[in-house]
Write a structure and sequence with these properties.
191 residues, mainly alpha, 74% helix
Length: 191
């Protein structure tokens, strides 16, 4: 947090705000986490990122009802209904003991290029009666998700160099983030 305060122009406002929110998760300060994400108001796309990460952070801190509300806000605000925000919502719905609603979300994702295989695996897991797990469970994996989601949004079309850097930071923070490795490969192939 001190570094973010010391260099306010050193990183993009969105990245800094998301990292601040995740740092507060690491400090187990729900009030400060809420305030950090709330500060990310403005244009519609920033608010989609804010709501997505707020939902992930609330879930990681045990507030599943709040997580559901934020993730539904991200999806209604324009987040991809066939990507990670939808997968995160489905997992939260399962943990809230709403398996039919979760199935419906997974079913909407099936066949998509982005997360179809993941949704298929999650549906199979659900059918076996195995418990869902959160997409993000810690401040570190949340920070990785922040870099990954922004890298994905930037893609090869907008700023491939920054996207590649963010994707590599994401996988350094969370080496098991397979989608991050796939994104790196796609960015390298496109470049």
């Amino acid at each position: 947090l001190a570094r973010l305060d010391a260099e306010p122009n050193g990183v993009n406002r969105l990245v800094a705000g998301l990292l601040r929110g995740w740092a507060e998760v690491g400090r187990a300060d729900a009030e400060a986490m809420e305030a950090a994400f709330a500060a990310l108001a403005g244009d519609a796309m920033t608010e989609v990122f804010r709501d997505y990460h707020l939902g992930l952070a609330r879930a990681a801190m045990g507030d599943l009802d709040g997580a559901r509300a934020a993730l539904e806000g991200a999806l209604s605000g324009g987040a991809s209904a066939d990507g990670r925000p939808a997968l995160a919502l489905a997992a939260v719905l399962e943990l809230l003991e709403l398996p039919e609603e979760a199935r419906a979300v997974y079913a909407e994702i099936l066949g998509s290029d982005r997360a179809g295989r993941l949704a298929e695996a999650e549906l199979a897991r659900l059918e076996r009666g195995e418990a869902a797990s959160l997409l993000v469970r810690s401040a570190r994996s949340g920070a990785a998700e922040a870099f990954h989601s922004i890298a994905g949004a930037l893609g090869a079309d907008r700023n491939a160099t920054v996207a590649l850097l963010y994707a590599r930071v994401a996988t350094a923070l969370r080496p098991e983030l397979q989608e991050g490795h796939l994104l790196i490969g796609a960015l390298l192939e496109a470049g």
